[in-house]
Amino acid sequence: MPVAPYTTQSVPGSKPPPSISSSRCRPVVTRAVTEGQSIGATRGGSRAALAFLTGGSRPPYLLRMSSRVVLCSEKSPVAALVALLADDFEKRAIILGRAVPLAADEAAVLLVDVESDAPELLATLGARVHDVPVIALAATPPTEAALPPSWYACLGKPVTRPVLERALEQAFDHARLRRESAATRRELEELNEIGIRLSAERDVETLLRLILSRAREITRSDAGSIYLVEEPEGEPRRLRFEISQNDSATIPLSGPGDTRPAGASVPISDESIAGHVALTGEIVQLDDAYVPPPGARYHINTGFDKHAGYRTKSMLVVPMKTPGDDVIGVLQLINCKRDPARRFASPEEIEAEALPYPERFKSLAASLASQAAVALQNSRLYESVRVLFEGFVSASVGAIESRDPTTSGHSFRVADLTVALAEAAHRAARGPLRDVRFSSDQIRELRYASLLHDFGKVGVREDVLVKAKKLPPAGLELIRQRSEILKRGLELKFLRKKLDALLRGSREGFPARADEWDAELATLLAEIDEHLKAVAAANEPTVLPAETAAGIRSIAGRAFVDHTGDAQALITPDEADILSIPRGSLTRDEFKQIQSHVLYTYEFLKRIPWTKELREVPTIARSHHEKLDGSGYPEGRRGAEIPLQSRMMTVSDIFDALTASDRPYKAAVPVERALDILDQERKAGAIDADILALFVDLKPWELKP
What we know:
By secondary structure, this protein is α/β, with parallel strands linked by helices. 43% of the residues lie in helices and 13% in strands. The protein has helices spanning 78-83, 161-200, 204-219, 273-280, 303-308, 347-353, 359-403, 410-427, 440-451, 462-465, 475-503, 510-538, 546-557, 573-579, 588-606, 617-622, 644-659, 671-683, 689-698; strands at residues 29-30, 67-73, 90-94, 106-113, 134-138, 151-156, 221-230, 238-251, 255-259, 265-267, 284-286, 315-321, 327-336, 559-561, 567-569.
């Protein structure tokens, strides 16, 4: 008697069929299919084996599985048996060449007859091919080793309906567990990714937007908001409404998307949901926010819904707790959606479609809120350290400028000019600087280097640092007093001549000789006065012509013989050397001391444990007096050896030194003259031509800080 391919009832008197996963069940062969495995033909050459497809993207994890669909070919012998299955299975026929419409939340199992169904059958599953377990029916089932990876089970013919239903139940359970496992894995991956992004973000506003958007994404929320706890001095703690996002409604405060409403805050109390969560540190989960649980004091303010044409239904409100269990904020999620891309068109649609938040979203949101609290706390700590360091830098610059009031404000102006120049280079889309790009950290690095570029002046003697004239402050007065002494000595000398002539009794011709002596004395006194004027003029820190310098040296060589017979000059040779300085007010030794401030700056800044983002501050500051032609100091670097940032600072430093009105040793020059001098430096090959061109075009001196 031939064996029927399928049997729809158990054999009378037989025991219930064992589970299909039991090794005692023959000819049933099973294998659990793991996500991502390739689906291939049977190993061992099983006849009529199906060639299964590979590829396809992973489906998103689901909130729930709404139905269980059994699939089979409409022309397969399996179809007759499927028709007899219990009503809790939905039967759906497959037509070759047509895609199978499966919703994202539908679970399906495919039944195939190995000997009868076409190999192309699985192609109809499309992207869901990896998500659909296969139960195969075969006259001669393959061994377990030869079982195709895509098959969940292989039942030998004939098969009874109870055995098939048992196999289907377990296949659907297997599919559910796979999806839950995939969902858990996906959620853990997302939490890990979110944690990495949160830890990397330092800007508080960006961080808040990131926290809220990722929290809404991972919980399929249509809307959400974040409150932060603020503690005004001497006042009770409050919740400040920091940011809100809504996919389906325009936020009345500032429009669609997200917003940071200024000044909006609520007391931390049981009267509001967010206040209750901040006060108790407990999660609030509401299926309908308009219907709070019995005994709850909190209630929702429906004013927003009325104003925006919205309906706040399901809510998940989570405290943002630090590791010390302090609540620093509240994360509020609103209206869980089946499809995260869905936008609700009306409050009625929200009423019908918004889902309660499942339990696993509660733990996900709590985990994310904890990560967010740590990230926010770190961001605040980073900001407080940054503000502290900014204060230290500003105080340091102020301390240095208090030693050298003549350059007050110079460091801040150079920083503003240099940062503006760097930002303009960063924005350049054309020209030789179009490839220059600076990160925000590099801009901050450049700003610190510019502010601290003259810090080494702390190591320079104050009398050199503030020297306004060529001679020391008392030097010119000493020469004036010396001139008076010389004059008195000469006057005494000629008076003695007159007295000696009278004492010798030679009165004859005395008036004529006295007039000669008076004329000679007047000539000498006038000469001293002229020399004194020349000395005072040479003492100014201007460019000194060579002939003037020669005249100063001749003054040092001119001796006047006084009444005692001693010969004395108006100025000493050392004073003549100082007064003969061709430019400025500093001697060579003094100028070397001033130049040494760059090395002092570098040595000081090098001792600061800069972060990785700011580690080039010492190098940038050290090189701001270097010139492209090697004529700069302290190392005489050339061209590309000088950092680009330092070359920018060089232009800014020279410009401010020329135009500043606070230098007692020189007058401020007009901007046009300063630019001419910079252009002369460019022509000499000392400064960067491209940077100077950008500086001239930008006119950063006109920009407001």
